[in-house]
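Progress against Task 2.4 (sequence-to-structure conversion) is shown through the following example record, which the project officer requested during the mid-term review.
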Amino acid sequence: MKKKLKDIKPNPNNPRFIKDKNFKKLVNSIKEFPQMLNLRPLVVDEDMVLLGGNMRYKAMLELGIKEAEVTVATGLTDEQKKEFIIKDNVGYGDWDWDALANEWDLMSLDHWGLDITAMAGMETEEQEQDQNATKKLIFNYPQDKYDKVIDALIKLGNNKETALYNLLVKV
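Structure tokens generated for the chain above:
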């Protein structure tokens, strides 16, 4: 059912937040694919307090959207509401990185919000330096394989970060 956003209350106890960069990505994602909002409704309790979709709700307000598809969860105890809030945001599954790398467009995956640096055993580590957050690539390979990966990357660019960026993003 559709409900006016002005009638929906943000959850004051929502333990999740979204940083500016990711919030902008979410806003753009909704702007580019608004049909997603109908496929994945907001979840509220009987008092119209959000249980699921707090970040989407904020993004919709930012975009000036006036109403949204809503599912009303009725008959839940306070403990069940808390449980839902957490379980709705827990990701149990893992990505098949080989399938993604071979069968999907990497630029699209990145644009859609998937952290493609996690491919090939890499992780990101945010470092706060002045106001701009930078990311440091960490390769999780045994030393001999690490050396081979670095050598191959350097052939693609003047350093491993530039080479990897060229390989994953500019291709």
